[in-house]
Design brief:
The protein is an alpha/beta fold. Helices cover 47% and strands 12% of the residues.
């Protein structure tokens, strides 16, 4: 399964005390492929550092970037499907370029994608994704 994960989901899944930590554990165990672009990795690092500090961000990014199930994606087309927060388009563009199965986010700005017939983007929340991981 190929997945693009929004920063908000990565952030809340890192801590072993988080109820969403199984998402990060499943990534570490190779249960799915995480599709990213350079700008997504940059945002992960920036937000994790903001929220958890430099050392935690450095450790988390070192782990993520060394995973064999990390797929680095090059985007060649910019769809510009999200107007409210154009910076989030990087996740949509990565999803399309990777031919991913899911875009995992709880950001309400992504709801507009359900109305767009092409390209079809399968957006699910972190709870639904965790349910998929548990049921296999």
């Amino acid at each position: 399964m190929k997945v693009v994960i929004d920063t908000n989901v990565i952030l809340v899944s890192i801590s072993h005390r988080s109820p969403w930590h199984p998402i990060f554990l499943a990534l570490l165990q190779g249960a799915y492929s995480l599709c990213v672009t350079t700008d997504i990795l940059d945002e992960y690092a920036e937000i994790i550092e903001e929220q958890m500090g430099f050392t935690s961000a450095e450790q988390a990014m070192e782990i993520i970037e060394s995973l064999p199930n990390l797929e680095r994606i090059n985007k060649y087309y910019f769809w510009q499907l999200l107007d409210k927060d154009p910076d989030d388009n990087k996740f949509v563009d990565c999803y399309v370029a990777a031919n991913a199965d899911f875009l995992v986010t709880d950001d309400k700005d992504f709801k507009v994608l359900k109305e767009i017939p092409f390209p079809k983007i399968k957006v699910i929340g972190k709870d639904e994704f965790m349910g998929l991981l548990v049921t296999g």
